[in-house]
Amino acid sequence: MTGKLQDKVAVIGGGEKNLGGLLATTFAADGAKVVVHYHNDSSSAENTVKAVQQAGSQAVSVQGDLTQVSQVRRLFDQAVDSFGGIDVAVNTTGMVLRKPILETTEEEYDQMFGINAKAAYFFIQEAGRRLNDYGKIISLGTSLLAAFTDGYSTYAGGKAPLEHFTRAAAKEFADRHISVNTVAPGPMDTPFFYPQETPERVEFHKSMAMGNQLTRIEDIAPIIEFLATDGWWFTGQTMFPNGGYTSR
Ligand SMILES: NC(=O)c1ccc[n+]([C@@H]2O[C@H](COP(=O)([O-])OP(=O)(O)OC[C@H]3O[C@@H](n4cnc5c(N)ncnc54)[C@H](OP(=O)(O)O)[C@@H]3O)[C@@H](O)[C@H]2O)c1
């Protein structure tokens, strides 16, 4: 244990698997109690709760569709009920779609903006209400925010407002010393990434980064850990940890 988050409480949106799951055990190793939010995958959530406990800390899991504002509020209510307060709130939830604008339906648009923009907004709002002074709020964007590419209009477009939500919240919560940031990784080697891509495009994405490799969750977790601990002076920023990734 590093003890950097000793006696602190962390809420992780999408904390059951992939990047969120690794953050849960990383924060636990720093001494934090963890609230593991999940959407569909209760067995991953159970495993992550056990992994936090094995790391010597405490965890609870909370299910919720975070496109429903009432469920965002219930997540934070349950965190306070379980552990008495919240210090760190990380939202890793998101949904990806690669589809031309001319083929995108109204339902797809609403679903993509529901989880990537609306849920992210109300997660920040509730965190701003419920976090202790000196809290940390971190959202997950995508390096596509800095790219000029086709096919990702509703994914990159849905995540784009995060940069402005982050800046506004950083200003509005500064009087309570709460920092607010977005971390926007390059294409990351998790099951989230592959269904939208062809093998050729995966190779192309690898070729755009240092070392001919995709971003790994192990590359990103320490950056989020830094923002949640020693990096408290960063606020209102979007960071692009992407191994030099650029897109056409
Ligand atoms: N992998 C990449 O290439 C990549 C690159 C850059 C940025 N990112 C971003 O990094 C974050 C983590 O991605 P990841 O690769 O670790 O994949 P992931 O584990 O699949 O993360 C997405 C999470 O969002 C949850 N979610 C989806 N719809 C939801 C809803 N309506 N309500 C609540 N939760 C919902 C998913 O739960 P269910 O699966 O149960 O629906 C899942 O836990 C995402 O925000 C993603 O946009 C990913």
UniProtKB/TrEMBL annotation:
Keywords: Oxidoreductase
MF terms in GO: oxidoreductase activity, acting on CH-OH group of donors
SUPFAM superfamilies, sorted: NAD(P)-binding Rossmann-fold domains
InterPro entries according to UniProt: NAD(P)-bd_dom_sf, SDR_fam
One Pfam family hit: adh_short_C2
Superkingdom assignment: Bacteria
UniProt keyword rRNA-binding, yes or no: no
PANTHER family to which the protein is assigned, alphabetical: NADPH-DEPENDENT ALDEHYDE REDUCTASE-LIKE PROTEIN, CHLOROPLASTIC-RELATED, RE15974P
Entry similarity comment: Belongs to the short-chain dehydrogenases/reductases (SDR) family.
Record-given protein name: NAD(P)-dependent dehydrogenase, short-chain alcohol dehydrogenase family
Organism name: Actinopolyspora xinjiangensis
